[in-house]
């Protein structure tokens, strides 16, 4: 199977409508990517790996080197999905030139097809700069976790008139600037509906209601691997529970000297 392309993703939305919603999940490792890849359209190497993989308190301390190492692993582990890599906090906000230097390194060193950055109207100039120079950009509006200190937390956005209008303006600005898709995180459904109807590019919701053109979740959240999850996460499995039960059994057998058994033990021929 040939790998999907960014234009193919964008073409999934025709005249303001997406027949079949886009499926996106985060991936941070090669093996994880391999397992998810056949089921997804887009794999996102999210800077959420800061909390999920590294135990950091937020995405702010995530470095470009981390994103490149995990991005390259996910590209190696996938053959079908479009791989998008998050630009980490501090690596792109200063200027379009800074963003280009960062994004071109990410693309050259990982082999990913696109980058994602947070911000709406304020990032429009940068999005245009990158997309015109061969770097497809996925934008991210609404609840933008890199701005947690300015937002004051991870609460859903858009409940006031002012915020509502700002998020719609952000979505319009990134679409106008040439983003090929936009993640809409943690917003009330009205906003997701209005944005999805008003922009030409696919909207990908996370806590953005079923009315977006696609959905994304943090894989560890939906698998039940991460302890604290927001309301918008549906837990499809309890992998943490399964792993804990499995490891308890291993520990018990090691302590009882019943593992390794004869099948796992070498003998002379
Ligand atoms: O970092 C991430 O995982 C993300 C998605 C949740 C959209 O940005
Ligand atoms: Na992110």
Automatic annotation (TrEMBL):
InterPro entries: Pantoate_hydroxy_MeTrfase, Pyrv/PenolPyrv_kinase-like_dom, Pyrv_kinase-like_dom_sf. Its cofactor is Mg(2+). Pfam families: Pantoate_transf. Keywords: Cytoplasm, Magnesium, Metal-binding, Pantothenate biosynthesis, Transferase. Binds 1 Mg(2+) ion per subunit. Its EC number is 2.1.2.11. It catalyses: (6R)-5,10-methylene-5,6,7,8-tetrahydrofolate + 3-methyl-2-oxobutanoate + H2O = 2-dehydropantoate + (6S)-5,6,7,8-tetrahydrofolate. One of its GO terms (molecular function) is 3-methyl-2-oxobutanoate hydroxymethyltransferase activity. Mg(2+) binds at residues 47, 86, 118. CDD domains: KPHMT-like (cd06557). The keyword Cytoplasm applies. The active site is at residue 185. 3-methyl-2-oxobutanoate binds at residues 47-48, 86, 116. It is found in: Cytoplasm. Catalyzes the reversible reaction in which hydroxymethyl group from 5,10-methylenetetrahydrofolate is transferred onto alpha-ketoisovalerate to form ketopantoate. Homodecamer; pentamer of dimers. This is 3-methyl-2-oxobutanoate hydroxymethyltransferase. It comes from Novosphingobium endophyticum. The lineage of its organism: Bacteria, Pseudomonadati, Pseudomonadota, Alphaproteobacteria, Sphingomonadales.
């Amino acid at each position: 199977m040939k790998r999907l392309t960014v234009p193919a993703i964008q073409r999934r939305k025709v005249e303001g409508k997406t027949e079949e919603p886009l499926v996106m999940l985060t991936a941070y490792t090669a093996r994880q990517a391999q397992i998810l890849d056949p089921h997804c359209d887009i794999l996102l190497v999210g800077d959420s790996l800061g909390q999920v993989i590294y135990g950091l308190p937020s995405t702010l301390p995530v470095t470009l080197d981390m994103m490149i190492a995990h991005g390259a692993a996910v590209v190696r582990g996938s053959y079908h999905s479009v791989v998008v890599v998050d630009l980490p906090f501090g690596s792109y906000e200063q200027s379009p030139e800074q963003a280009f230097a960062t994004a071109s390194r990410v693309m050259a060193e990982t082999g990913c097809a696109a980058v994602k950055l947070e911000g709406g109207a304020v990032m429009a100039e940068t999005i245009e700069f990158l997309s015109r120079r061969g770097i497809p950009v996925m934008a991210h509006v609404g609840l933008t976790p890199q701005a947690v200190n300015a937002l004051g937390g991870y609460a859903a956005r858009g409940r006031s008139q002012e915020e509502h209008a700002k998020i719609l303006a952000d979505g319009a600005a990134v679409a106008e600037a040439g983003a090929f898709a936009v993640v809409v995180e943690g917003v009330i459904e009205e906003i997701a509906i209005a944005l999805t109807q008003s922009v030409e590019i696919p909207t990908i919701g996370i806590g953005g209601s079923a009315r977006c053109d696609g959905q994304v979740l943090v894989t560890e959240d939906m698998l039940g691997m991460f302890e604290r999850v927001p309301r918008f996460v549906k837990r499809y499995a309890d992998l943490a529970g399964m792993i804990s039960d499995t490891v308890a059994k291993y520990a018990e057998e090691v302590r009882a000297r019943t593992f390794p058994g004869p099948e796992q033990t070498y003998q002379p021929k």
